[in-house]
Amino acid sequence: MYQNQGIEIDVDGSWQADGRIGYGLVIRRDGVELYREGGTVPSTDPDLNSHRQIGGEIYAVVQAVRWCLQHQVQECTIYHDYEGLAHWATGKWRAQKPLTKRYADFIRQAPVRIRWVKVAAHSGLSWNEVAHQLANQRESPL
Question: Among 1.10.10.10, 1.10.1670.10, 3.30.420.10, 3.40.50.1100, what is the CATH number of 7-135?
């Protein structure tokens, strides 16, 4: 179990011209990387794939929250560059499509308190850039 204080997560998604959807996440505490994951979103979910880059962004957040649950993390900060991730989760935007409804329900039901921080995409923030690189990998490093 990790202490709950200081868990920070950067997430990103990507869509490539060949139709591949990618995701990336990097988890850290006190500036020290604890975990990273990224690669191609599994093609078994047509909703994720039909939303292109947004599907990758959503997949990254879900994977990050699953990691938190596995490690008994009860609160974290998620840095993201797509505002919909926070807005659907908090109810600021109404989730209308099946994917965004599933996502919002999952986040709201997870026993993890999330502080959402919107960052500018591709602005040189080192951890956001790592998440972006992971989202653009061809295969998962796992």
Answer: 3.30.420.10
